[in-house]
Every structure is written in structure tokens, then in C-alpha cells.
Amino acid sequence: MSGEPRKRQMEKAIMDREQVRAHWRDWASKFGTALGATTRTGTAKMLEIDALARRMSAIGLGDAPAHVLEVGCGNGLNCFGLAAQFPRMQLDGIDYTAEMIDAAREAAVANGFQDRSSFRIGNALELSAASGLLAQYDVVFTDRCLINIESVELQMRAITDLAARVREGGHLIMIENSMATYDRQNHCRTLLDMPARTPAEFNLFFDETRILPHLKTLGFEVEIEDFISLHDLMLYVLVPAINGGTVDYDHPLVHAATQLSIAVSAEISSAFGAFGQGRMFVCRKP
């Protein structure tokens, strides 16, 4: 993607706000508590939860009581993955889709986490209107949430509101797709004579030239971890290169790349370069 089409994608999503909401309402109704409500890629979800858990352990949440908020929680899969690994963690989740919240509450009971999790309707752009939230949290996190906001200006406004919910010494952690790394991944595809991919019409990937300076103005110390590069190179570049251009979410090499990524990430951060469409932005409030 280059020139004017890329510039337009970076400034505004194709779908408007109500169309995006309708998309997620439809997926929630179709898939309920299942993985498919928020992603088609089970291996990517494994890597996202692993990245979140590793980071939360690294910042000292392993043994201590902690209050964590997920904004854009979907049907709660991230919260349940963390609750299983951090027995003293209390998790709140908000999502603007009522069907997602219904599914999250159902799954909380089914998984036995109803005493350590709470799910309610709320919007990243109207965080102050969400009832029952704490004033501040040890960690506030998102996972492919803010890319569903239709303009960079509104993404930055949401980040400002999220930052206000982070206590001093706490963290804002955002796993969000980035145009910078997406472009690198697409360049790899063109090197193998495959066409560039384009983001889904309900997504607006982060423009880091604007998001990173905004995080600095909010006073955050920012670290970026590229935890999914090997997986995405395998899924979107190498397997299609030998598979007639087809993306195969269940290919054995994709599963192998997932397991290797988890094992290596426990020892070396960002070991496979910056080629994954998702990045983890770890923002500490001094």
C-alpha cells in the first residue's frame, strides 16, 4: 500500500462507527463465548495472552494483588487467560457491544472466574460514562481495540482517557496493529511476488508517527515488543508463498512458529524482528 490510498487508510477507517459496532455485534451473536467472536486466528490469540502474561509478570504482578482493566474486552478471553495465571488479580472488562458482555459474563461463570472478574458495557471513547470502574488501575490494557476507532484523532483521545485510569507507577499496555510493521510484512510478500494485503475495512491501524509522540506528551515511558513477527511471517508470507497464495490458519508451520515464538520470547524480547502486524506498546507512568 503506497501513496494516496495508504495515506487515506492511515487517517480514517473505511467503515464508520456504527458500521464497526454492527460488525462486532454480528460476530458476538454468531460466535458467543468462542474464539471466533474476536479473531479467526487461534495461534495469534495464544501469542497475545502469552505476551500480556509475560509482561505482567515482569512488572511484578505475579504474587501481589492487582487491579487490571481491559478496554474492548470482547467475550473475555484475554481476562480469563490472565486470571488463570494470576490468582490474585482482579479483572474488570468493558466493551461497547452488549452481546460481547453477555458472552463474557456467561464464560466467567463457566470458567469459575466470576468472583475475580466483572464485565460491563462501556466505550473507549466514553470511559467516564462506564459505571462501576475504579478511578485508577495497576494496568489498563487493550488488545486490537483502538484500531476499531475510525480516526487517529479519536484514537489519541481514547488513549488520553485510558492514561487517566493508570495509577502512578502503573502501566498502559496496548496490543494494537501498526501500519509500520504491516508495511514491512507486505514488503516481504512483494519480494516473493505476492500482492500486498490490505487491512480490514473496520480497522485503522496505528500511525506510530502520531501515536508515539502523543504517548510521550502524556508522560509515558514507552517500550515496544514485537512478539508475533515469526508467526505472521509464516502465516501471511511463507506459507502462502508455497500454498498458491492461500493463508492457512491451521498450517503445521504456523503452529510450530507459535510454539517457537512463545519459547524464545521467554528468553529474548523481539527476537524475530518487527514484521508482525500487531505490536505490544508498553507504557509506564512514572
Automatic annotation (TrEMBL):
Keywords on this record? Answer: Methyltransferase, S-adenosyl-L-methionine, Transferase
Q: Where is the Methyltransferase domain?
A: 66-178
Output the Pfam families linked to this UniProt entry: Methyltransf_31
- Keyword Methyltransferase tagged: yes
Domain of life of the organism in this record? Bacteria
BP-aspect Gene Ontology terms: methylation
Q: Does the keyword S-adenosyl-L-methionine apply?
A: yes
**TM segment ranges:** none
Q: Which PANTHER family match?
A: METHYLTRANSFERASE, UBIQUINONE BIOSYNTHESIS O-METHYLTRANSFERASE, MITOCHONDRIAL
Query: What name does UniProt use for this protein?
Result: Methyltransferase type 11
